[in-house]
Design goal:
The protein contains four helices and ten strands. It is an alpha+beta fold. The termini are far apart.
């Protein structure tokens, strides 16, 4: 094998704490809420853990804000050791939500946009169509802490693109433009 074909392993930098180096390389098949919030702290994400027990489960929802864009992180699996989590954000588009979801899904393959209906008043008579964007993150087979961090950084990019897409306008050439 030539030198070009051989993958090179990166040497750990000497300016990091050795325990952090080891934990970044450890393979994780599950995460706890404490581990998730530690990663969110490291990424400087604003968050609040909501332990919603209205459905008789102790599964939390972590309400987050990243780059001024709100989203939810919902741990999935048998707590306290969660084997996956769902990232979700919601938009209230002015244009046709169904067509916008189709166009978004053709462009972005990292997540899925879909429409849903919510009730906008207390009598449940008035409905509004919203767009939700989901990204399921599975830890099956094991991932590193760095992979989880990269996934959340990619999600931040998706949030910003989605915000521009669903809050902007589409011109006659199907091009997104800001108003």
């Amino acid at each position: 094998m030539s030198e070009q074909e051989c993958p090179q392993q990166q040497e750990p930098s000497n300016d990091q704490d050795p325990t952090q180096q080891k934990s970044a390389r450890m393979i994780k098949n599950y995460l706890t809420i404490d581990e998730l919030t530690e990663i969110l702290d490291e990424l400087e994400v604003e968050y609040e853990v909501d332990w919603d027990d209205s459905d008789n489960t102790d599964d939390p929802i972590i309400e987050c804000v990243m780059s001024n864009e709100p989203f939810n992180l919902a741990p999935l699996g048998q707590g306290p050791f969660y084997d996956s989590f769902l990232l979700r954000t919601v938009f209230f588009p002015d244009l046709d939500p169904g067509e916008m979801c189709n166009q978004f899904n053709r462009t972005y393959h990292y997540c899925t946009a879909f429409t849903s209906t919510i009730h906008t008043d207390s009598t449940d008579q008035e409905e509004q169509t919203i767009v939700a964007i989901d990204r399921a993150v599975m830890l099956c087979g094991g991932v590193t802490r760095d992979h989880i961090i990269s996934t959340l950084q990619m999600w931040e990019t998706v949030l910003l693109h989605a915000s521009n897409f669903f809050n902007g306008t589409i011109d006659e050439n199907d091009e997104l433009s800001e108003e």
